[in-house]
Amino acid sequence: MNVNGKHYRSIWLHTANPGIVQVIDQRKLPHEFIVEDLKTVSDVFTAIKDMHVRGAGLIGATGGFGMYLAALTAAGQLDSIDYFKAQAEFLKSARPTAVNLAFAVDRQLEIIRRFTASSTLIERVKKSALDIADEDANACRDIGKHGVKLIRDLEAKKSGNTINILTHCNAGWLAFVDYGSATAPIYAAHAAGIDIHVWVDETRPRNQGARLTAWELEQEGVPYTVITDNAGGHLMQRGLVDLVLVGSDRTTYTGDVANKIGTYLKALAAMDNNIPVYAALPSSSFDWNIRDGLTDIPIETRDSDEVRYVQGLSNNSIDRVLITTPTAAVSNYAFDVTPSRLITGLITERGICAADETSIKLLFPEMQQKHG
C-alpha cells in the first residue's frame, strides 16, 4: 500500500542483502516512519513480542521469515531438527493468541524436516517464507474483492448516499503483508468510487486505530473520523453506522472470533441496532482444532504499563505520559472473543459465509474430514 505515494509491503527482504528482513517499526507510527532490520531469530522474537510488528497476518509472515533466519544463522546445525524445533517453539511463544504465527512457523518446520542436511535447505526455507508472505497479500486482496460486494449492496440500499463503516483496532495492511483484512473491502470500495466514510475506534490501550488505521486511511485518501472506543454504540443508535468490519486473530471452525479487546462490545451494540458485523480473515486465521472459542482460545495479557501510560508526540519527540498513579492495579487483556451468534458473516479469500460450522466447512471442504 502507499506511504507518501510509494508502494510498501509491511515486510520484505533487503534488496542488497537477502539475509536481512526489513519491517516497519509500528511503535513509531504515525509520527515517524522507520524501517527496522531483523538479522537474527532473537530480533524477530523481540519484534513480535514488543509489537514492532503486529496483526495476525504480519505476525505469521514475520515468524516464517524468522525460521529462514534460523537457517541462515544455524552455525553448523542445519542437520539438527532439534535445533529448528527449539527455534520454532521460541518464536511461537512470542504471542499466543494469533494462530497465524504457529501456522507459519509450523509450515516452515515441515519444509525443514523434508530438507534437513540438504544443500538446498536455506533456499527452500527462504522460498517458503516468501510464499507465506505472498499468499497473505493475495488472500487479503481477494478478501477485498468479495467484501466490496457488501458495500455495493449498501450503496444501492442507500441510493448512493455515504456508507459509514465502523472499524476496531488495525486490521489494515500494517497488520498483514498488504491490503489488510477488514480494510481490504474499504480500499476496494474507495478505488471503485463508492462514497464511504470510516469511523475509526482509537482502540485503547495502544491506540492502533488512532495511530495506525487512521494513518493508513489518510495515506490512501479514504475519508475517516477517529472516535473514542465508547462512542460506537452512540453512533449506531443515531443511525450513523451502516456496517461493522473487524479483523480476527483467531477464528474457530464454529465461527467464534477472537479479536482486539473491545470487539465483543461493538458486536453487542451492533446486534441491538440491527447493524451487520463481518469479520474479515484469511484462512490462515482459522483454528481448525478449537470448537469453543470462549473456553479454548488463549487470551494474551500484556504489560500493565501499556494501560498506565499513553504515547504521543511532544516537543518533536515521542514520549510516554503516565495517566494513573504509578502503582495503580491494572489488568490488560489484549483480546476478547465474540461468539458466532453475534457475527453476521465471515469474509475470506474464498468468499463470504455465515459464522457457523456448516457454512465454514462448505467454504473449506478439505476440512470436513478433520471433524467429520
What does this structure look like?
The chain has about 375 residues and is of the alpha/beta class. It has 2 domains: about 1-135, Four Helix Bundle (Hemerythrin (Met), subunit A), CATH 1.20.120.420; about 145-370, Rossmann fold (3-Layer(aba) Sandwich), CATH 3.40.50. The chain contains 13 helices and 18 strands. The protein has helices at about 40-50, 55-70, 80-90, 100-115, 120-155, 185-190, 210-220, 230-235, 265-270, 295, 305-310, 355-365, 370; strands at about 1-5, 5, 10-15, 20-25, 35-40, 165, 195-200, 225, 245, 250, 255-260, 275-280, 285, 310-315, 315-320, 335-340, 345-350, 350-355. The strands form 5 sheets. Strands 8-7-6-9-12-17-18 form a 7-stranded mixed β-sheet, with helices on both faces. Helix 2 runs antiparallel to helix 3. The two termini are about 40 Å apart. The model has no long low-confidence stretch (mean pLDDT about 95).
Topology, element by element:
Blueprint: E1 2-3, E2 6-7, E3 11-13, E4 21-24, E5 35-38, H1 41-49, H2 56-72, H3 81-92, H4 99-115, H5 121-157, E6 163-167, H6 184-191, E7 196-201, H7 208-220, E8 224-227, H8 232-237, E9 243-246, E10 250-252, E11 257-260, H9 263-272, E12 277-280, E13 286-287, H10 293-296, H11 305-308, E14 309-314, E15 317-322, E16 335-338, E17 345-348, E18 351-353, H12 357-363, H13 368-371
Parallel strand pairs: 6-7, 6-9, 7-8, 9-12, 10-13, 12-17
Antiparallel strand pairs: 1-2, 3-4, 4-5, 10-11, 11-16, 14-15, 17-18
